[in-house]
Amino acid sequence: MKKSTLTLGVIAALGAAWVGGAWYTGKVAEEEFVRQVNLVNKDLSQSADSLGLDIRFDHVSFERGLFSSKTKYDILVSELENPSKTWTLPFEGTLYHGPLPLNQLSHFNFMPSLFSSVDLMTKNETTVPWFEATKGKTPMTVTTFVDYNQSGSSHVDLVPFEAVMEEGTLAVNGLDMKLGFKRDGVNKLDFALNKLQYSEPDKNVSVEFNDLKIDAEYQRIPEWTYLSTGKQSLSGGAVKLIDSEGKVEFKNWKVDFDTVRKDNILDSGAKIVFNGISVRDADLGDLTIDMALNHVDGETFNQLIQVYNESAKQQHDELTDEEVQITKKFIDTQPQFIFNPTLNNKAGKLASNLDISMASADFENAISQGKIFRLFNHFIFKMDANKEALIEEAATVLQLDRLDKEQATKEATEQVNLGIKNGVQQGILVEDGKSVKLDLVLEKGELKLNGNVIPEEQVASMLFLMVMSMGQ
Question: How far apart are CA 356 and CA 452, in angstroms?
Answer without folding.
Answer: 20
